[in-house]
Amino acid sequence: VFVKVVQAPEDPILGVTVAYNKDTSPNKLNLGVGAYRTEEGKPLVLNVVRRAEQMLVNDLSRVKEYLPIVGLAEFNKLSAKLIFGADSPAIQENRVTTVQCLSGTGSLRVGGEFLARHYHQLTIFIPAPTWGNHIKVFTLAGLNVKTYRYYDPATRGLDFHGLLEDLGAAPAGSIVLLHACAHNPTGVDPTPEQWEQIRQLIRSKAHLPFFDSAYQGFASGSLDADAQSVRMFVADGGECLMAQSYAKNMGLYGERVGALSIVCKTADVASRVESQLKLVIRPMYSNPPIHGASIVATILKDSDMYNEWTIELKAMADRIITMRKQLFDALSARGTPGDWSHIIKQIGMFTFTGLNSEQVAFMTKEYHIYMTSDGRISMAGLSSKTVPHLADAIHAAVTR
Ligand code: PMP
């Protein structure tokens, strides 16, 4: 019966790894997927995560019963505190509802479906460019996806003027997707002053901000600093949505642990919103998995473990920053034509190199280096050993 089913294309990001796995070269390098690697190129399980898992295994009172539809209550509370701040008035006033979801993606999807059912505006503006999955997630959730200008290829920085113009021209009440920090794929974030102007514009147009926080702690190494943009919006008393992921900052990629929070005007509204979120979740996957959320809750509620986590998190962030410096220095040493300062200016896991798809294809063919065709490289996939190989490849690609 399925004979007419046509072959679907690979996912543009995950497909990079498929191609990489097929390559037999000993020099192959995967800079496509945004997963952290050690200096030795190995995936990392944080020590504090191992410790939390041990504690969970040793606790024989733990059972495998279903979680409630909204997930682990303790995890939800701690997640809201982590992103909004322990002293957040919105939390103290019980105006925030938080539900455990399947990592960042699931949080975006549940949030999108809730908005499609209960919000008066169905258009969501996402930055151009953005993480490719945003378009599909929100379209399938039932929203109309439009873009606002974000990145300026000429400066390899923020197109701040274009951003303000587009959000200013958007119909009042539009949903606006914002990357809380470490914008993917560009690594370009607004300054605090620019965030303040964005906030004023969004509030004056009665737009609804929907934050995607996939890299808290990964950008600067500080969990609080990377939440500043979000906290600015919550501090003004207005509404927003927040999709949180623990994939990167706790290295819990495959555990699929994240949270959707909706900040409302009153506790009463928040409670009704939560009741409707349950109606979105129940027919989708019934209730979320228990293990990842238990790891996160174990770490967040214990001050010792929390501190250990912040140290390990900072070490990951610092290694990425070091890779930026090393790559920049290696290109300078080679006299590679062009201004490469954006490599050290951009923030977070990715560098948006400015290499075009032809140059990317050349680097893959001749140097066995894999990345998305938009020229995005994952700095977390680099090491001191592989920087020279990448610098050689970039040099060859731009001087060809
Ligand atoms: N948003 C952004 C901007 C991302 O980069 C990612 C991960 N690549 C996600 C959301 C979601 O990731 P996950 O579902 O693994 O948490």
Verbal overview:
- This protein has 400 residues and is an alpha/beta fold.
- It has 15 helices and 13 strands.
- The strands form four sheets. Strands 2-10-9-8-7-3-4 form a seven-stranded mixed β-sheet, sandwiched between helices.
- The N and C termini lie far apart (50 Å).
- 4'-deoxy-4'-aminopyridoxal-5'-phosphate binds at residues 34, 103-105, 131, 179, 184, 212, 214, 245, 247, 258.
- Belongs to the class-I pyridoxal-phosphate-dependent aminotransferase family.
- Its cofactor is pyridoxal 5'-phosphate.
- InterPro entries: Aminotransferase_I/II_large, Asp_trans, NHTrfase_class1_PyrdxlP-BS, PyrdxlP-dep_Trfase, PyrdxlP-dep_Trfase_major, PyrdxlP-dep_Trfase_small.
- Important for the metabolism of amino acids and Krebs-cycle related organic acids. In plants, it is involved in nitrogen metabolism and in aspects of carbon and energy metabolism.
Shape: globular
Computed CA radius of gyration, to the nearest angstrom: 21 Å
Proportion in β-strands: 5-15%
Q: How are helices and strands ordered from N to C?
A: HEHHHEHEHEEEHEHEHEEHHHHEHEEH
- Which stretches of 5+ consecutive residues score pLDDT under 50? none
- Please state the oligomeric state of the protein chains shown: single chain
Calculate the terminal CA-CA distance, rounded to whole Å: 50 Å
Q: Reading side by side through the largest sheet, how are the strands ordered?
A: 2-10-9-8-7-3-4
Function: Important for the metabolism of amino acids and Krebs-cycle related organic acids. In plants, it is involved in nitrogen metabolism and in aspects of carbon and energy metabolism.
EC number: 2.6.1.1
Subunit structure: Homodimer.
GO molecular function: L-aspartate:2-oxoglutarate aminotransferase activity; pyridoxal phosphate binding
